[in-house]
Amino acid sequence: MPPTAEDAITLDYNCLPLSHSPTLPLSHPMPPMRSTALFLVLLLLISTALADGPGDNVADQVRPVPPVGIELSQPDRNELEDGLAKLNAKIDQLRKSKDTKTQSLIPDVEIFSRAIRDAISHRELFHKNDVAKAKEVLAEGHARAEALQNGDAPWTQQTGLVVRGFQSRIDDTVQPYGVVVPESYSFTGAAEYRTDVWLHGRGERSTESLFIHERMNRVGRISPADTLVVHPYGRYSNAFKFAGEIDVLEALEHAKSQYRVDEDRISIRGFSMGGAGCWQFAVHYPGRFFAATPGAGFSETPEFLKSFQGETLTPTWYEKKLWQLYDCTGYANNLFNVPTIAYSGELDIQKQAADMMEQAMGEQGLKLTHLIGPQTKHAIHPDSLTTIESKLANLADRGRDRVPTAIDFTTYTLRYNRSFWLTVDELAEHWNQATVTAKLSASENTVRVTVDGVRGIRFDLAAGDAPFHPRQPVQIEIVDFSTDNDSETGANRQILVAPRPESDRSWHCQIHRDGDQWKIGSRPTTSSIAKRHGVQGPIDDAFMDRFIIVAPSGKGLHPVTDAWAKSELDHLVREWRRQFRGDAIVKQDTEISDEDIATSHLIVFGDPSSNAFLKSIHHELPIQWSEDQSSVKVGQDKHVDAAHHAPVMIYPNPKNPDRYVVINSGFTYREYAYLNNARQVPKLPDWAIIDVRTPADALWPGKVVDAGFFDETWKLK
Q1: pLDDT averaged over the chain?
Q2: What is the pLDDT of residue 528?
Q3: If you average pLDDT over residues 708-713, what whole number do you get?
Q4: Helix (H) or strand (E) holding 161
Q5: Which of 76, 94, 146, 601 can pair with 547 through a Cys bridge, CB separation 3.0 to 4.6 Å?
Q6: 134-138: long-range contacts at Cβ-Cβ below 8 A with a sequence spacing of 24 or more?
Q7: Beta strand pairing status for 261-271 and 291-295?
Q8: What is the DSSP letter of 312?
């Protein structure tokens, strides 16, 4: 979403304001600041007030995100570069240590080095004050490195504001996050602590150095008593989608390894862009949180962009399908299992997000708790915050219901396929709504299930959780609205006899649909591949786990498409760093090892002439080059000229179907989408054919002449 005036306060005064909100919201308690800092905020608000809205709806006039920073003075550059070199030397020495604890804590130091490296290399310091902050960040990195060299790590036993780091699985880069450790926290003992995950607002200038500085100096909007607060970076300003989503999960897992987090008292919270992220996490991961408190933000794509951005939308049919990945309204049913407290300012245009969710929940028979800050624009009213904290405290006392007796679950993709003890293994068709309700009846030793659009389900009740009689088999009563064997209800009704619980009071059972009948057990193994969790597409899904870019070492057969493929590779590397704050791993096609194939999605650019790895697999892909590479074949009937057309696609790697191979594509939204977080959704489905005679621009990699989804067995429809 566009940056807001409120974000200018929250994120170190470093982002662009909304034209509709040109003044600081008086209802939000303002943090202490010098008059010069206040002047800078007001200057920002005035000078950039027209930087969003219709001005950001022109695809051929896209401003840079992040913006270009200031030129460093030579003394400042020398000081930062010299300090960085010395810090890197200390980190190199730490890497030589054989002490496992030292090795595990290096990311806590390296985050400072990487932040300053990028700030210098890519001009990502935006004011003179940012230079001073960078020096503070660098100094903290030195202090940590020196402490670790002496076998000490005082920040790991520190209360208050602490910045931590972890190495991300996606691209091996170190990523920062902040923690507020309450003064009451005890570093000894067994007590576990409530933990609130707070998702920040949009800040186009909130690059690593400035984020780290803020997390070193500001508690933030919330700091409940006796509560750990985790502040994920989210890989910058992507509304916690894609790699930003994984960053939140990785940061939380790292925090669990460092602090005593109570698994049953983790909440997800956020405001503005963070409110959007909060809606997404609540509906996608309903079994993880004891509560969710989304504030403002957006909850879906089309209506928000029309009402907030004033944008006239002309989506393709597959873009509309792909909105279902992050549009929360379609998943509103999942809030049946997540206590949710929404907040909006009465005068905030972003109240639209909660209004949309309120309507969607109402259609599911659910009533949203929606607190309204009176006469408030884009800010959290103090009285409303008091109410939110009181309600959350009561919910935290109860904790998460680990084993709810009833689950309502909706999904459109196997990327999001689990709620508590229920997992959806197969869908009838991706991007159509699929629903499951499941209820445990202890007195009848029965699970009652209704499904629509689902072909495979797994039940997993852990030790001590199964409420069933241990000497009796469990009955599964299933009603399937995907079939119409029952003329009265339009549903297929069955009773299945499932295994008994185990002696530890756990129970596990898998069922699948065969034709119109449901059967106990997993689907019999066949030679064909099928869409499943983590290998279900679309193209953008490959960038939510570890990936390696496979660069061509040879020359393509067709000069135009060869140049285009290499340009798209460069575009991915550049934009991955800018928008997902990572250093993409790039290897030549001749360097790909068995370990790479086993552990990583492979993002392959070129054609069978230029890329040796692509040559080794392209005959096993559903879209292929002809033998002489004069054409690209889409199924049996369609051929396009390979001299000017390039295929892009995602497909299970023929050398390892547990990982993807992606052909000629990075993440599919481009520079135009950076201007509003609601636009940051997939632009291409599982495959497409690109006419490269139309130059790539801020919207598309070229002219999309055909595109579509593979079916549930990865075949062309």
Answers
A1: 92
A2: 83
A3: 97
A4: strand 160-167
A5: 601
A6: 134/80, 134/209, 134/213, 135/79, 135/80, 135/83, 136/213, 136/216, 137/112, 137/209, 137/212, 137/213, 137/216, 138/80, 138/83, 138/84, 138/87, 138/112
A7: parallel
A8: -
Cα 422 vs. chain centroid, distance in angstroms?
22
Decide if pLDDT at 14 tops 50.
no
Report helix, strand or coil for 21: coil
Q: Would you state the structure tokens that stand for residue 154, as one six-digit string?
A: 């005082």
Tokens (6 digits) for 379? 């800010």
Q: What is the pTM of this model?
A: 0.93
What size, in residues, is the chain? 717
Pull the structure tokens for residue 311: 């944008």
CB 453 within 8 A of CB 483: no
Structure tokens at 359: 């309507």
Q: In DSSP terms, which residues pair with 92 in a beta bridge?
A: none
258: number of Cβ within 10 Å: 17
Q: Tell me which residue has tokens 């504001």.
A: 161
Separation between Cα atoms, residue 231 and residue 163, nearest integer Å = 9
Hunting for tokens 């499904």 — which residue is that?
451
pLDDT in tens, 549-578: 999 999 999 999 999 999 999 999 999 999
Axis-axis angle for helices 100-121, 74-95 (nearest 10): 160
Q: For the sheet with 623-625, list strands across it.
A: 623-625, 631-634, 638-641
Give CA–CA dist 419/252, Å, rounded: 19
Instruction: Place 484 in a pLDDT band, splitting at 50, 70 and 90.
Output: low
**pLDDT grade for 592, boundaries at 50, 70 and 90:** very high
Per-residue pLDDT tens digits for 256-281: 999 999 999 999 999 999 999 999 99
Give the tokens for residue 413: 């993709």
Chain segment 408-430, per-residue pLDDT in tens:
999 999 999 999 999 999 999 99
Classify residue 23 as exposed, middle or buried by CB count within 10 Å of its CB (0-12, 13-18, 19+).
Answer: exposed
Instruction: Round to whole Å and give the CA distance between 136 and 161.
Output: 15
Name, in order, each residue with C-beta under 8 angstroms of 680's C-beta and a sequence gap of 6 or more. 238, 239, 241, 242, 669, 673, 674
Compute the distance between CA of residue 237 and CA of residue 579 in angstroms, rounded to an integer.
7
Predicted confidence band of residue 158 (pLDDT cuts 50, 70, 90): very high
Q: At residue 203, what is the residue type?
A: G
As a whole number of Å, the CA-based R_g of the chain is 26
The residues, any chain, with a CB within 8 Å of residue 563's CB and separated by 6 or more, are none
Helix axes 352-363, 273-284, angle to 10 degrees: 20
Rounded Cα gap, residues 377 and 200, in angstroms:
18
Structural domains of the chain, ranges and CATH numbers in brackets: 5-56 (no CATH), 154-398 (3.40.50.1820), 431-520 (no CATH), 539-708 (no CATH)
Half-sphere exposure of 618 (CA within 13 A, CB side): 26
Q: How confident is the model at residue 12 (pLDDT cuts 50, 70, 90)?
A: very low
Decide if 693 contacts 703 (C-beta within 8 A): yes
